[in-house]
Amino acid sequence: MKKIITKMLILAGLLLMSFSAAVAEDCPRGQLDKQFCDRNGDMVADAPADRKEWVDPAVIVFSYTPVEDPEVYRGVWDDFLKHMEKVTGKKVQFFPVQSNAAQLEAMRSGRLHVAGFNTGSNPIAVNCAGFVPFTMMAAADSSFGYEMEIITHVDSGIKVVSDLKGRTLAFTSPTSNSGFKAPSALLKSEFGLEADKDFKTAFSGKHDNSVLGVANKDYDAAAVANSVMKRMIDRKVVDGSKIRTVYKSQTFPTTGYGHVYNLKPELAEKIKKAFFSYNWTNSPLKAEFKAEDKFLPISFKEHWDVIRKIDAAMGVTYDCK
């Protein structure tokens, strides 16, 4: 009898798996992980159809992309997070993360609700963690973005890109657009220089490490987001006179801000309202991000098109493990 019951349970399990697979096959998702659906074709995960799967946390957890020491930004974001508390009626907690991987895993595991993911991490966050970006910082005239710059110390002897041959170029992390993917693709396509073949590589972990590494002659050169470098120079963390730029890219979208896909829709709307109603005048955000004046509505499908093309050129796939 026990054997019959066991067989029946196994059969039921197999049937349930088959049913789940069939349902999954009927759900449009593009490049999204199998747990998500994209029925409206906007390339980001839809909110779950089952209300029971919506998340309505007592405390909203927020993190900012770890381009520099996270503790530097705790105070910068404090005023904004208090504004979010007023708009949502919930406590908001700043969550310092030390790496892109840690930030991605936090959202994927349900421990992170609202975040600013860096440019290169956005596609991975969208496809693997259910991130729904809806805004980024912009100037008053709605201009936005940053450039990737390849920098070197003024005494390095590197004056043009071809001088990188045989030298060491520091990247930040494999998920970074300006710190790895864009420079790798552009150096190969425009100058015929391939990493670990025509020049040596190193990974600093963060943009501020790369900038400081160049200024201190730890690296011959580095690929960085110039927005980070400019803020470091403005704060006098690094002496800009010691740095030379040998390459500057086209403008890329900057950090994308958004929420996890399964937030209760009413809460997600309040979070959006918090971003778009924030007063930048004399704010800590304005003091830190001097060129920015507002949060601009964006769509992942449109504004991250160039980044997805760079990923495609690099052979990047969004395999979620």
Automatic annotation (TrEMBL):
UniProt KW keywords: Signal
Domain of life: Bacteria
One Pfam entry name: Phosphonate-bd
Presence of the UniProt keyword Transmembrane in the record: no
Record's GO cellular component terms: ATP-binding cassette (ABC) transporter complex
BP GO annotations: transmembrane transport
Signal peptide region: 1-24
Family per record: Belongs to the phosphate/phosphite/phosphonate binding protein family.
Classification via NCBIfam families: 3A0109s03R
Protein name per its UniProtKB record: Phosphate/phosphite/phosphonate ABC transporter substrate-binding protein
Lineage: Bacteria, Pseudomonadati, Deferribacterota, Deferribacteres, Deferribacterales
